[in-house]
Amino acid sequence: MRVMLASQWFPPDVGGVSSHVRDLAYTLVRGGHEVLVLTRRGRRYGDLRVEGLSRVECASIPLSMAGRGRIASILTLFKPEVVHVHHAFTPIPLAAAAAAAALGYPTVLTNHSSYLDGWDLARIALGRAALPVRAVLSMVDEVIAVSRSAARFIAAFLPPGRQVRVIPNGVDAERFKPRGPAPLRDSISADFVILFVGRLVYRKGLTVLLKALSLLEDLDLTLVVVGEGPLRLGAEALARRLAIEDRVMFLGSVNEWELPGVYRSADVVAVPSLYGEAFGIVALEAMAAGRPVVASRVGGLSEVVIGGETGVLVPPGDPEALAKALRALYEDRELRAQMGRRGRARILELYDWRVVIRRLEEVYEAARERLSVVRPRVTTTS
User: Fold this and answer.
1) What number of helices (H) and strands (E) belong to the chain?
2) 183-351, superfamily in CATH?
3) Reduced to 3 states, what is the DSSP secondary structure of residue 109?
């Protein structure tokens, strides 16, 4: 099947959408599909390491007839059997969805956003006000959300009664397997290693984690921080003010091929997000590596991490609760091992890419069937 993926973000961009689209492209190509990724111009992607994965680099395109026309020419050349756009609130996916629908190509949209959870009236008001987004979403054949939280959010922008399928992000369970090299651990003398992976921005909650660490001064532990972002200097300054700088290791960005070894070097992975977490790929990777997760009870995170089974869920923005959860896991090695095993089993059952891709392929087929019934494809002549 020829599949076009459209995303505003793609490596080297950092973030959940970028990682998801990259891994989806890898998985589709490995499954025998032909894939083309429509994304921004001027990016340097490096070696994608997958034969047959091509890229079309294009500028950010506004919702206009000119923008649609530019993407329409790419669609006409590639002739995809399905167009899968990611994230409903950025120009390239919206323009790609509009152009594909207008030309009669089966179109699938995945929503990766989750905001205003619990604020139903505000979410509904936002959905009604965003007329351009609503107009484009009404054209797509199938709508996917990566979590129930993300489904609630995107539903506000859809016609009443429109079905939203919940299909989670995937993870390569083999690449993140629990056993394997863990070179980082050899450089750490502490008995217990906490790992944080993510962009260093406010909503990811690193400052809360640093404050929690300051409450665990009696424990022999090290916090490893992987990621870059505008908060790094502030986080380093906060660590100094809390007098914990000698217990925090800022690694910066880590190559994706080295990341599994970083997870294997940890005893527990912390995901202390404050809000806006539609899913939580870091939690998936940690569970695939057999590590328990301490996460905030926000958005899709509380769907991925099962409190008391695969990790511990705590209120967002609460350093004391976070410290209590970390202390409990520090003191109970067997509990950590049990949670790690359960998390790994959950990954193999629900989140491994081999499972997720089958569900996506079913949606692709459903979009093609829906198209044949709802609207005829527009043919072009040269």
Assistant:
1) 15, 13
2) Glycogen Phosphorylase B; (3.40.50.2000)
3) strand
